[in-house]
Amino acid sequence: MRFFSCLCCGKRSDGKKKVKKTEPSWREFTPKELQAATNSFNYDNKLGEGRFGSVYWGQLPDGSQIAVKRLKAQSSCREEINFAVEVNLLGGIRHKNLLSARGYCAEGQERLIVYEYMPNLSLVSHLHSSESLLDWTRRMNIAVTSAQAIAYLHHHATPRVVHGDVRASNVLLDSEFEARITDFGYGKLMPEEDGATKTKNIGYLSPECVESGRESSSGDVYSFGVLLLELVTGKRPVERLNQTMKRGITEWVLPLVYEKKYGEIVDQRLNGKYVDKELKRVVLIGLMCAQSEPEKRPTMSEVVEMLMNESKEKMAYLEGIPLFNKKNGSEILS
Ligand SMILES: Nc1ncnc2c1ncn2[C@@H]1O[C@H](COP(=O)(O)OP(=O)(O)OP(=O)(O)O)[C@@H](O)[C@H]1O
């Protein structure tokens, strides 16, 4: 049986409170164990489907809940060896706001990655759903904790990791609604994607990544900037204006910043319940990250510092950036 958590309070549907446990150790799972945990990958256990495969809810004999990602089949032995090596490597990268794998299973054609189950699912299911509303405090907490996780990947993890796919569906939320970033380093695990599946992260991809197809830490910063704007506006990264025209979130936000119309930028569903100076700070940082020239973007550790720095001096510094000067701003962004 599967227990879903209430989107607003995080309580399990069976009424039991979730008890915080110490992090389980990394290990290899057998196919039998994962079959038993997921009721043979039953359709009822399916949490969703991504570009790399399907994800199933499961429960281990010790009662812990897991999410098992069943990757699409690959072919050669070499890929199988790489898979084990890379999953081991990624499993060793630990940070409280990263959703690291608990383990894996590789047998025959099967490649499975086992994660801790996140009861509040992904950020995307809260930002663009009428059933759930994230309050301002939670949004700010998600902004900081997800920035810290990506900064850890870029600056402290061994080896350093480019996430390569920063976006709202890869920000999972734990029982306290803190961010747990997932799907990092997948570029290494999976073969090149086809065009049809790649379109899923359109709007988050930096111009240089669209052009070259290459991932980079400054590309992650760009995607994170778009994510920040999505978080405070509740709008999708790309909006369809009519049959032929689309508009990126930065193109919509920047003119409103020139006119200092922050009240129009913020998610209207918040009904005015937000903190002015925090909104301003996040919007400016988001735009700064999503500049088209990679060398003008901050690093992720600078982003963390700016998000947490409440001083007037920092705000004055942000407002003085050429991007926010109407004369040249839109050129820098496009
Ligand atoms: N650890 C987890 N706990 C709870 N739900 C999860 C977990 N991992 C994934 N999911 C859910 O499973 C679904 C599929 O996730 P998956 O990561 O495969 O795809 P995605 O992130 O939506 O897209 P993509 O693979 O293109 O990045 C999503 O709805 C996600 O919220």
UniProtKB/TrEMBL annotation:
Catalytic activity annotation: L-seryl-[protein] + ATP = O-phospho-L-seryl-[protein] + ADP + H(+); L-threonyl-[protein] + ATP = O-phospho-L-threonyl-[protein] + ADP + H(+)
Record localization: Membrane
Keyword field contains Magnesium: no
Keyword terms, alphabetized: ATP-binding, Kinase, Nucleotide-binding, Serine/threonine-protein kinase, Transferase
Enzyme Commission code: 2.7.11.1
All residue ranges annotated as the Protein kinase domain in the record: 41-318
Membrane-topology descriptor: Single-pass type I membrane protein
One Pfam family, short name: PK_Tyr_Ser-Thr
GO molecular function, one term: ATP binding
Principal location listed in the UniProt entry: membrane
GO cellular component, one term: membrane
Residues that bind ATP: 69
Entry protein name: non-specific serine/threonine protein kinase
Organism field: Eruca vesicaria subsp. sativa (Garden rocket)
